[in-house]
């Protein structure tokens, strides 16, 4: 959640366009499609959740000869620090057709949070919370190096909408609760921290017209994750995630986008997994830039989570930036979410937590930067987000 005091605008570079403009003497320049895009985003920011922050995030997309969609290779990296003692560093690779028809994806990361949020379990947790995210009652100290790797494929052909995947994820979580915190008082499963390895599997039915910036079609997904001694995990539990993403073109420039997600966990679930979902695109919450915008990150957590995201996306203009085409878009959205957890009171079925807002989108081929402002209609508190890629 980044509310910037200074935001150094991202640079869209096309190195291959420079090379293509160099021709032999006496020959006319040949216009070619760029084979590489790069993004660099320096950050100097302030967040109501993380305080002053600084770092950099970037990505590189290699298109090759254009025969592989949406690109041949993608590599992204982030280095980020905040004044509240948080770190979020990662290196990620994506090769859509690296191993023949199989897509190889992987991520290596390290996260540290001196003030990782924990408000207890359930849809009505921490009723006395008034928005002070620095209050140690609602925080704990956490460190968590981890990695995951995944193979995705289309067993019925490259153009068939059915995809399946298998993978493995591992994380070691260090938990240090503050003496006055809710975590220290409740001492849920997972208070000891330790390793949690997961076997991952799932299937998708993908009819989107464009993976990075879709305007029609949709994705239905079912995902499974299992942890136990055989996966090098201290905890034994399983999870199921069901997700629906749908995109409807209303006019040539206006698209309605909708996502519905239901995530269910069973067994000996450590509390730090209450906030996560499974699937190809992992979310956390309820609350934050990947689930319900406008609500404090991970404000509501439990074994069962459900959320809905509705967006109207409008392509406002196209322009040239450093000699390369750039699209500017605007978005308005409504997010809703809630949780259920065994042994606690979760309120009535219609007690969902909403967030509303709007934002800007800057896109260049497969690269999308989003900036969102959101407000919780329950509390009136506000959030601002800057990140890469559409929310869904």
TrEMBL record:
Domain Bacterial surface antigen (D15): 101-392
Domain of life: Bacteria
GO CC terms: outer membrane; type V protein secretion system complex
Gene3D superfamilies recorded: membrane protein fhac: a member of the omp85/tpsb transporter family
Presence of keyword Lipid metabolism: no
Signal peptide residue numbers: 1-19
Gene Ontology terms: biological process: protein secretion by the type V secretion system
Keyword Membrane in annotation: yes
Protein's cellular compartments: Membrane
GO MF annotation terms: protein transmembrane transporter activity
Keywords: Membrane, Signal
Identification of the protein by name: BamA/TamA family outer membrane protein
Source organism per UniProt: Corallococcus exiguus
């Amino acid at each position: 959640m980044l509310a910037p005091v200074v935001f150094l605008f991202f640079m869209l570079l096309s190195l291959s366009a420079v090379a293509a403009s160099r021709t032999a003497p006496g020959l006319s320049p040949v216009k070619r499609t760029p084979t590489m895009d790069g993004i660099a985003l320096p950050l100097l920011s302030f967040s109501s959740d993380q305080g002053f922050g600084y770092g950099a995030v970037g990505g590189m997309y290699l298109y090759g000869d254009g025969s592989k969609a949406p690109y041949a290779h993608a590599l992204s990296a982030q280095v980020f620090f905040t004044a509240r003692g948080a770190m979020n560093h990662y290196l990620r690779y994506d090769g859509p057709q690296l191993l023949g028809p199989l897509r190889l994806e992987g991520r290596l990361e390290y996260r540290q949070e001196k003030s990782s949020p924990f408000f207890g379990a359930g849809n009505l947790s921490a009723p006395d919370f008034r928005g002070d995210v620095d209050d140690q009652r609602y925080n704990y100290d956490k460190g968590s190096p981890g990695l995951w790797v995944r193979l995705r494929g289309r067993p019925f052909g490259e153009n068939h909408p059915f995809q399946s995947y298998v993978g493995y994820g591992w994380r070691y979580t260090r938990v240090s609760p503050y003496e006055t915190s809710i975590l220290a008082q409740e001492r849920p499963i997972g208070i000891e921290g330790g390793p949690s390895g997961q076997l991952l599997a799932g299937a998708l039915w993908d009819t989107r017209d464009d993976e990075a910036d879709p305007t029609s079609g949709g994705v239905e997904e079912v995902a499974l994750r299992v942890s136990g001694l055989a996966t090098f995990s201290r905890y034994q539990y399983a999870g199921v995630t069901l997700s629906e993403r749908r995109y409807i073109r209303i006019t040539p420039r206006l698209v309605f986008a909708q996502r519905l997600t239901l995530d269910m966990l069973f067994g000996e679930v450590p509390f730090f997994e209450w906030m996560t979902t499974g699937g190809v695109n992992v979310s956390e919450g309820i609350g934050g830039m990947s689930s319900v915008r406008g609500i404090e990150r991970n404000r509501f957590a439990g074994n069962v989570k459900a959320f809905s995201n509705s967006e109207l996306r409008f392509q406002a203009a196209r322009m040239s930036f450093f000699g390369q085409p750039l699209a500017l878009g605007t978005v308005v959205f409504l997010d809703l979410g809630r949780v259920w957890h065994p042994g606690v009171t979760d309120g009535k079925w219609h007690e969902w937590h909403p967030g509303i807002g709007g934002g800007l989108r800057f896109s260049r081929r497969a690269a999308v930067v989003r900036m969102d402002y959101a407000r919780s209609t329950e509390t009136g508190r506000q959030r601002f987000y800057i990140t890469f890629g559409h929310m869904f």
